[in-house]
């Protein structure tokens, strides 16, 4: 067991202990409540009872003896999942903050030195000296998978071609799975233009799209010229790395033979301010990188490869069995299999790569469905492999199965939708149902604080983010169920639509994609009607709890996103 793993386990237990101590000290936790059985002491029937009286008596009897007990089981299941979720979130934030406060950096755990010949004035050296210095650089291949990427193909190819690395030690591979002949021709011409400038750029296509992105990456690595490369960097078509990306990442792989992956952070300067939808996506992903990725890297040297903006050791890819197309999260799949082989990962939050966020609600839903469904399906496929792995410590296995898979891929979407969009709304019409205050008030508040701590710059968008996450929980739960049960759509792959430099129109105010015809999203509209009805019922017939303000806001969020309203704002607005 390594020191990082021991520290991670200790901090996890500490987070759980602090959460429990806070609950006990405030008297919030109370498990003594039993479901009240209505019936004893019921008023005697009138001399001539009407049909309405009999209906009310029947409904009270059914509600108290069948509906309330069934929902109460759901309540306690959600309470357990809520505790799991808040401890996990507190742990990730505590680890990332603690390591930041002590000034921990990956260089303290893993060796990093600039490569020989990497320094100022190299361009002034003679030809022989420059050639000798270039020989000290390993062969690197940069893969750019794309599919009908008309809006962004030039951005990614240009950014990769401007990477600082000896030209004779760099191969750029554009893997074009486009089905549009016009776009394919443009991409090929772009590659030819850069080849004329002396870049070793290869344009590769396939006859079909078998395996989607995983199939394209696998095919690219099987080509003869690719086999000479020791390291493979991957950038999706909308990603734009800085010129020094390879100079800052590859040395970690060169000097640490047990490291398989170096992952950089995503930033969203391309379109993160065009709408409220992109702002809340940034909040969600910023927390993912700042808390989850940093915590996993600092403690267990394990986290999910984000599919792009990372550099792999080819030996590790081959050792793990290569790219597989059995799920829609081929990046996570490879990361888990490589970890089970004993390889370690490094996350570098200081290296940031520009990327683009989905600009429409439909594109965002499809992206989240693919990620959530694939993660849950991979959990189903890998659980026994993780338990049987011999090169992974027991603590790391627990972290992978419990924190990485169970809590994040299953528990989080389940409790977010079932508790806040089903049970709490129904509770206003079922007075026998008991909702502990610590589960419906204290835990959500704690989650809000934990998220805000790691995203202080996004604090003003957190309330809107909470409402949007309530809506997205419906899609994530449906995706998780589809992945766990391997339903028909579990392996569905739809590429996220991008806008590139066309994110704004001539007036620089609204996204061009907003001009497309909107369609109504029926599930969101139905949920909005249900939530607004429950809120109105709670407002008119006051019961034990008053949730109508929250329910009205949730219903409004479902309604607006059901109409594809993403909150477009003028570009000069600083919100």
From TrEMBL:
InterPro entries: Glyco_trans_2-like, Nucleotide-diphossugar_trans. Its EC number is 2.4.1.32. The keyword Transmembrane helix applies. It is a multi-pass membrane protein. The chain crosses the membrane at residues 73-102, 399-423, 435-453, 522-541, 547-569. Keywords: Cell wall biogenesis/degradation, Glycosyltransferase, Golgi apparatus, Membrane, Signal, Transferase, Transmembrane, Transmembrane helix. GO terms for molecular function: glucomannan 4-beta-mannosyltransferase activity; mannan synthase activity. It is found in: Golgi apparatus membrane. The keyword Transcription regulation does not apply. Residues 1-28 form the signal peptide. GO terms for cellular component: Golgi membrane. Residues 231-424 form the Glycosyltransferase 2-like domain. Pfam families: Glyco_trans_2_3. GO terms for biological process: cell wall organization. It catalyses: GDP-mannose + (glucomannan)n = GDP + (glucomannan)n+1. It comes from the Eukaryota. Probable mannan synthase which consists of a 4-beta-mannosyltransferase activity on mannan using GDP-mannose. The beta-1,4-mannan product is the backbone for galactomannan synthesis by galactomannan galactosyltransferase. Galactomannan is a noncellulosic polysaccharides of plant cell wall. Belongs to the glycosyltransferase 2 family. Plant cellulose synthase-like A subfamily. This is glucomannan 4-beta-mannosyltransferase. It comes from Leersia perrieri.
